[in-house]
Amino acid sequence: MDRKAETVGYIMDHLEAKIVNPTTGELLPLGELGEIMIRGYCVMLEYWNDRAKTEECITQSGWYKTGDIGSLDAYSYLRIEGRIKDMIIRGGENIYPAEIEQFLHTHPKVVGVQDARMGEEVCACIKLADGEECTPEEIKAYCKGQISHFKIPRYVLFVTSYPLTITGKIKKNDLRDEAEKQLGLNKGK
């Protein structure tokens, strides 16, 4: 039952799926997070009159790069964790905000901000429950020993609200820009 509740389901008949390293394209083992790629008769062949877009999204062997981050289990159940464009690259390590969001549960908004040495750093933008107080040190201490050291947010900002789209999704680019502005990291922009 958990498998059905925690995944988007299993891969359909007559459809192939694989998980690859988004940087190298290397096939990853079951359970590992990476880019979801699919191939089959139900997958489009190309973008109409747009060769560049086709080459960007579809490999020579017909694999469609979904842009989603996820994992497959041994029963072909697919779990989607986020989008590649939201991935934080810190010193060569790929960090998926959704993974950190899931760990923090009550502090779910995490973005990457630029960093001269590491490329990007993890920044948690947290909205506390009414009447609650917290410090950045408490958040970092909560993470220690629970998630990999390189995934622990270097910066912790507390916000009163999040920039939202008309459909209620968080505008991560706006959140990232505001975090970089508050931290004085947007000098190159």
Topology of helices and strands:
Layout: H1 2-6, E1 9-10, E2 15-20, E3 34-40, H2 51-57, E4 64-72, E5 77-83, E6 88-90, E7 93-95, H3 97-104, E8 110-115, E9 119-126, H4 136-143, E10 155-158, H5 172-183
Parallel strand pairs: 9-10
Antiparallel strand pairs: 1-5, 2-3, 3-4, 4-5, 6-7, 8-9
Characterise this structure.
The protein is α+β, with helices and mostly antiparallel strands. The longest helix is centred in the C-terminal third of the chain and has 12 residues, at about 170-185. The mean pLDDT is about 85. It has 2 domains: about 1-85, Luciferase, domain 3; about 85-185, ANL, C-terminal domain (GMP Synthetase, Chain A, domain 3). It contains 5 helices and 10 strands; from the N terminus they run αβββαββββαββαβα. The strands form 3 sheets. A 5-stranded antiparallel sheet has the order 1-5-4-3-2. Strands 8-9-10 form a 3-stranded mixed sheet, with helices on both faces. It has helices at about 1-5, 50-55, 95-105, 135-145, 170-185; strands spanning about 10, 15-20, 35-40, 65-70, 75-85, 90, 95, 110-115, 120-125, 155-160.
Residue windows where pLDDT falls under 50 for at least 5 positions: none
How many domains make up the 3D coordinates?
2
State the major sheet: 5 strands, antiparallel
- Which bin fits the share of residues in helices? 10-25%
Order of helices and strands: HEEEHEEEEHEEHEH
How many distinct helices? Answer: 5
CATH architecture call of the largest domain: 2-Layer Sandwich
Work out the radius of gyration.
Answer: 19 Å
Q: Mean of residue pLDDT?
A: 85
- What is the number of E strands? 10
Strand order of the largest sheet: 1-5-4-3-2
The CATH homologous superfamily of the largest domain is termed ANL, C-terminal domain
Helix/strand-derived class?
A: alpha+beta
Would you give the CATH topology of the largest domain? GMP Synthetase, Chain A, domain 3
CATH class of the largest domain: Alpha Beta
**Rough outline:** globular
Distance between the termini: 48 Å
Tell me the fraction of residues in β-strands, as a range: 25-35%
